[in-house]
Amino acid sequence: MPSTTFASRLLVVAILAAVGCSSANDGPQRYRIQGEITYDGKPLPGGRISFAPDTELGNSGPEGYADIIDGYYDTNNGGKGVVPGAHNVRIEGYDGEPSPRNDFYRYGNMVFRVHRDKIEVPEKASSKNFDVPDPPNEE
């Protein structure tokens, strides 16, 4: 009989763990955002773009992000979608070329540290292009 009690407890723990796991439908609605990013008039070879809800303007929720590859980003390609509303955008730019100093980093060598921008994200999938100025609006 003790083994039945142990098995019952184990089953309850397994069910609670399964119920407690989050699913893709948990949390606020996120939307796809994609676009092109240029620097010095050319597509930015590599980097990362992130979208943080602007809490000073009353927006909240999880941050969205995407990799930048050959001047293009898409939160549906390995990134995370974006909640609607005002966002602070952060773009990190790299040359896409591996080097002995930086060969572990898939984006290559830093072209600029960080460029910051602000956008409003609609309640639907959208496109937004960024032209990073030289010098960028760095942190």
UniProtKB/TrEMBL annotation:
Protein name according to UniProt: Carboxypeptidase regulatory-like domain-containing protein
Leader peptide range in chain numbering: 1-24
Keyword presence, Signal: yes
Domain of life, per lineage: Bacteria
Keywords: Signal
